[in-house]
Structures are given as structure tokens and as C-alpha cells.
Design a protein that fits this description.
alpha/beta; Enolase-like, domain 1; TIM Barrel; 10-stranded mixed beta sheet; 3-stranded antiparallel beta sheet; 17 strands; globular; binds magnesium ion; Mandelate_racemase_N_dom; lyase; Mandelate_racemase_C; DgoD-like; metal ion binding
């Protein structure tokens, strides 16, 4: 079989979009277009700057050389890694996989070696900073077809806080479990060591799917201690970038579930490698994705191929949506239709006729399996030009001291 003709990158664009997303569009001289997502909530301008450097470096390169571009993007500068540079590289990497799939007419999961499952289990976010969030959010998710949800364990919490915090968290978890839903509890790094062990112990009787970021991701030894203390699986990883960052958590046997974010960890390339790397430690994979549709589509492609995959985060009709949600920029959102807690694998084929006759997804095409409404993306980006990007809240205690968000 003859070698493929190169697909030379001619254009690399980024679009800042509500609610807090950064889409990447890569075009090649043979007319292929790939989409990626480099959303890094709270640091949008910094990632845009990092993209400027990637544009300077990679326009003129062959888009087929995904791994060569990844290596150069990661290693060719003296300083490397971290959220900003890795989010920019992630956006580019995802777009290159989309291009390669479209060029060859296959979904990305085919390029990664084929599926090991036909459906991907998903969970939805329900908030949890306030008690009223939780039950209302869980009921909505259940109606949407989810069988599992994730909630924040606590709101703002002091280094060592009142025991009433424990009781409030347990009540909220019990209320969600009473609806027949499985629930992951995200401590969000808000809880410090003294409270974390109490909180984890108090949740044990209610069997959460996992507790997430029980401590900040700078504490591998302390998280490992906690892991030996409680029976609930420990999940962590949205704030880790590349295999190197995961290494201390795996070597210390600190985590049971790895949660890399495809838009921060190094894209589809590194998420796929992380799946294999974590598997060797008997650690499950549950990619983090409270962001946009391109990141979710990229995760699903890897989830389908990873034997240790367990569940995928999916943020739908999110609380900070600012007029846009997961489906806004998609031409056909039925590719993410949830049936009894699962999304089915995109088949890589266009089937508009089937769509009309059988209400099947009309588009689950090659590459990432989604079709972006480019006109809306361009128009929205222009309309919001000059606006300040999304920022997270800042928590202070009653004494005025800073608390983790
Ligand atoms: Mg989290």
C-alpha cells in the first residue's frame, strides 16, 4: 500500500466561547479540518498565548505526524508541562486525531486499535455547594437518563471545621442514593487532612462510587495514607498533566481511579497512554470532562478502547452555562444521547437517511464523531470578543481567610 500523501497544516485557530471554553480548529492544505479543545477554566488568555507559539511552530508541518508534533510540542522548549502548555498541546493533539480519522474515513477508536466495548457509561454533575442543589440536580439527571452522578462533598470548609460539616455531607449523599443513583463525591481539594479522614470514614456506610481529590493533588503521601484508611475508592487526576505527574500517585498506591482531563493532560495521545500506564497499577480510568463537546467526544474515543475504563464525566446543562451548554455548538447532539446511563459508540459513518427513518444519530462520522457548527462558533466568538473570560468564585471563611475553591 502506498504511503499517504502528507496533509500540511496551513491554519491553526482558537475560539474563546461561552460558557468558558476554548476550541481549536486546524486546517490542512488538502482541505481537511480538525477540531480540538484546550479549555483551561480560569486561564483562557494564557492558553491562547501558548497557542500562538504552537501556531508559529507547527504551521507547515504534516498533520499526520501526530506523535512527532506531540514530542516537539512537549519537549522542544526548555520549560514544559503544567496546565497552560499542556492544555494548548491537548487542543492541537485532539484536532490532529480528528483530521487523521477524517482523512482515513474511520473513527479515532479504530486508529487506537479498536473498541473493547460498545457503550460508554456516563455520570452527570449535580453541584453540591448548597443542599438544595443536590436533590434537584439529581432528579434532573435521572430524567435525562443518567444512572450515576457526582456532587461536591462540602461547600467552603475550614482547615479543621465543625463536625456539623460531616453530618450535612452524609445527609446529602443519603438523599441522592435514595433516588436510586450511584454517586461520586468530589472533595475538590477543599478539605484538609484532618477533616478528610473523618469525612471519608463517615461516608463509608453509604458506598459512594468514589471520593475525588480527597486532598489537593500536591499530597501523594497523605492521599496514600488516606487510601489505606478507608474502603471507598479514591479518585484523582484532573489537575495532573502527563504520565510523569501521575507517577508518584501510582507508585505510592495512592489512587484507585485516574481522572485525566483530555483537554489538560496532553490530548488523545496522552490519555490513551495514561490508560495503559494506570492499568499496570490496577487503577481504573474515569476521564474528567466538565467542559465542552469536543473534549467529551475525544474522551469517548479513548474510553471505547481502554480495558480499565469505568465511567465518563459529562457536563450537560451546566450551572455556569452563560447561554451555551454541551450541545449548543453541535450540529447534531444526538451523538451524545444517553440510554440507561450509557452513550453508544459513534460508528464513523454518516447516515442521514437512517436518521430520518429510525431516529438514529444522523451524524456519528469519522474522526471525533461530532460535527461542529462552525458558523455559530465564529459568530459567537466575534460577538463576545473583548469580554473577560470566566473566572471561578473565591471562598473566604467567616474570619476573612482564604479557603480552597
Ligand atoms: Mg473534581
Amino acid at each position: 500500500m502506498p504511503a499517504l500523501d502528507p496533509s500540511i497544516i496551513t491554519k491553526l485557530e482558537v475560539f474563546r466561547l461561552p460558557p468558558r471554553w476554548l476550541f481549536v480548529r486546524v486546517e490542512t492544505e488538502d482541505g481537511l479540518v480538525g477540531w480540538g479543545e484546550g479549555t483551561l477554566e480560569g486561564h483562557t488568555e494564557a492558553v491562547e498565548g501558548a497557542f500562538d507559539a504552537l501556531r508559529d511552530q507547527f504551521v507547515g508541518w504534516d498533520a499526520d505526524k501526530i506523535q512527532d508534533i506531540w514530542q516537539h510540542g512537549y519537549r522542544s522548549k526548555f520549560y514544559r508541562g503544567g496546565p497552560v502548555l499542556m492544555s494548548a498541546l491537548s487542543g492541537l493533539d485532539i484536532a490532529l486525531w480528528d483530521i487523521k480519522g477524517k482523512k482515513l474515513g474511520v473513527p479515532v477508536w479504530q486508529l487506537l486499535g479498536g473498541k473493547v466495548r460498545d457503550r460508554v457509561k456516563v455520570y452527570g454533575w449535580i453541584g453540591g455547594d448548597t443542599p438544595e442543589d443536590v436533590v434537584r440536580g439529581a432528579e434532573v439527571r435521572k430524567e435525562q437518563g443518567f444512572t450515576a452522578v457526582k456532587m461536591n462533598g462540602t461547600g467552603s470548609v475550614d482547615w479543621v471545621d465543625s463536625p456539623s460539616v460531616l453530618g450535612d455531607t452524609v445527609d446529602r449523599v443519603k438523599a441522592v442514593r435514595a433516588l436510586g443513583l450511584d454517586v461520586g463525591v468530589d472533595f475538590h481539594g477543599r478539605v484538609h487532612k484532618g477533616m478528610a479522614k473523618q469525612l471519608a470514614r463517615s461516608l463509608e456506610p453509604f458506598s459512594p462510587l468514589f471520593i475525588e481529590e480527597p486532598l489537593l493533588p500536591t499530597q501523594p503521601d497523605e492521599i496514600a495514607d488516606l487510601s489505606r484508611m478507608v474502603s471507598i475508592p479514591i479518585a484523582l487526576g484532573e489537575r495532573l498533566y502527563t504520565r510523569t505527574d501521575y507517577r508518584p500517585y501510582l507508585e505510592r498506591r495512592a489512587i484507585d481511579i485516574a481522572q485525566p482531563d483530555v483537554a489538560h493532560c496532553g490530548g488523545i495521545s496522552e490519555l490513551h497512554r495514561l490508560a495503559s500506564y494506570t492499568e499496570t497499577y490496577d487503577v481504573a480510568l474515569a476521564p474528567h470532562s466538565p467542559i465542552g463537546p469536543i473534549a467529551l467526544a475525544a474522551c469517548i474515543q479513548v474510553d471505547l478502547t481502554a480495558p480499565n475504563f469505568v465511567i465518563q464525566e459529562m457536563s450537560w446543562q451546566i450551572h455556569y452555562n452563560q447561554g451555551a451548554d454541551l450541545f449548543t455548538y453541535l450540529k447534531d447532539s444526538s451523538v451524545f444521547e444517553i440510554q440507561q446511563g450509557y452513550i453508544r459508540a459513534p460508528n464513523g459513518k454518516y447516515s442521514p437517511l437512517l436518521s430520518l427513518c429510525l431516529s438514529h444519530p444522523s451524524y456519528a462520522g469519522p474522526g471525533l464523531g461530532i460535527e461542529i457548527n462552525e458558523e455559530l462558533v465564529r459568530e459567537t466568538a466575534i460577538r463576545h470578543q473583548g469580554e473577560k473570560p470566566w473566572r471561578n468564585d473565591i471562598f473566604h471563611g467567616p474570619d476573612g481567610a482564604f479557603r480552597e475553591w
